Amino acid sequence: xxxxxxxxxxxxxxxxxxxxxxxxxxxxxxxxxxxxxxxxxxxxxxxxxxxxxxxxxxxxxxxxxxxxxxxxxxxxxxxxxxxxxxxxxxxxxxxxxxxxxxxxxxxxxxxxxxxxxxxxxxxxxxxxxxxxxxxxxxxxxxxxxxxxxxxxxxxxxxxxxxxxxxxxxxxxxxxxxxxxxxxxxxxxxxxxxxxxxxxxxxxxxxxxxxxxxxxxxxxxxxxxxxxxxxxxxxxxxxxxxxxxxxxxxxxxxxxxxxxxxxxxxxxxxxxxxxxxxxxxxxxxxxxxxxxxxxxxxxxxxxxxxxxxxxxxxxxxxxxxxxxxxxxxxxxxxxxxxxxxxxxxxxxxxxxxxxxxxxxxxxxxxxxxxxxxxxxxxxxxxxxxxxxxxxxxxxxxxxxxxxxxxxxxxxxxxxxxxxxxxxxxxxxxxxxxxxxxxxxxxxxxxxxxxxxxxxxxxxxxxxxxxxxxxxxxxxxxxxxxxxxxxxxxxxxxxxxxxxxxxxxxxxxxxxxxxxxxxxxxxxxxxxxxxxxxxxxxxxxxxxxxxxxxxxxxxxxxxxxxxxxxxxxxxxxxxxxxxxxxxxxxxxxxxxxxxxxxxxxxxxxxxxxxxxx
Length: 611
Known about the structure:
By secondary structure, the protein is of the alpha+beta class.
């Protein structure tokens, strides 16, 4: 308490010093002086400082001052008599009407008396000021015809020995100074308790729209990088001509993205319980794809949220990773997802955050609060390790308007991006098939007016519009359409897995092996499915690969530069196929990017208490 009082007093004295220095160094405005710096005459001598004046030499008044003169135009003209007037004192001149009108309602001070009325013993006279000068209060230039100011009489200057020097920076009387180099043990204890009190009340700002933390680095895990290079992803060709029809218009420049205003879907539906994956939501358990990986509770994010339940036993201190990147122990780094993490500490209290974006487009946010050091025995004690989590389920299929708008925003640019490599002999990025789609989606980052599309995450490239598979040399086919659009459009992205597909224009029996296990390509021509029953295409409609028609793509692989090819899905014999529609992440998922903490507003997710 004593140290606080000293510190407070020191602060107050510092403010007073500043104010005193400011007051002492205030200059007189030019308009309030009787000297014109541009007239060429030297300035008049300044009056001596007040602290230099020898008050002992001040003459005493032997007689009372004469009464002030009457004011001819003043609001009031009091007559105060202080006694008989002295003969040697000159009368004060009366104030003119213009001077009285200078300030409304208040009489200005009288002008200085004319020196011509003083005895000859005084210095030479100065010209009187005109009424106009007094009425305007302006610093009018002094004419050189008036002569220079009176000479300085050196003999009237007070001697320097007649005053004491005053230090402007001296401390005020009674000021208490703190000797920081000789603090007592008691003062040190008080000081550090004061610091503890300050930092105990300190808490960092929580902002879900950007990755921030206090007290520790923000880690952006490079898990968003493309899958590892597989040299076996090059399509295997057999019994068909090696030279295929190319794209004669390969020199067409990229199309600039059109400015769009997509309808935001910031509110995510909460009926996620029925969604095991993008396909299982169609209530067809027999049509479960091999990708994304199956989940226990409807989505990958939901599974991790169950891992954060207090009833789930933890046996590793995964959130104290020495490498700086944290990942729940229920996940594997090679599973293919994007994640970002961060941590913060205040004293011994530490907080770890992690945000994970899964290939099924579900999102998880987890927080662990604990006190260091933490042991394995503390992991399942809620008083020592506090867990909290929030997640979003996979988004539901969109209608025709949203999907067509997504094509108009991204489709043409993606198709032209892929076609620009055809015939050049140059690879896109590393030359991997996946790079062609990934780089096309990243191309929109340079246009700030275009909403960010859903990034390529593992083998997911946006809104899934079709999944199909074939087996037994094409004798068995099944598939399902997803979403409100009724066709494949230019700029869609196709994924193959262990597929054996016939090629249009090849010799009889010619086919291509796509994917070992996966292969990616960009569709550059639209196609309208033709259901065998003639029905209109709609969401959830069963649709076999043989009803999808011919798919025209631009693809590349290690050892094979980008080239244009056509695949006839009616000749698909084995494997799986996915077709994605690139779409705005904000429109489809509800956020622009995944950070380590969930957004505070605009998102309806699930907390642990709701599981």
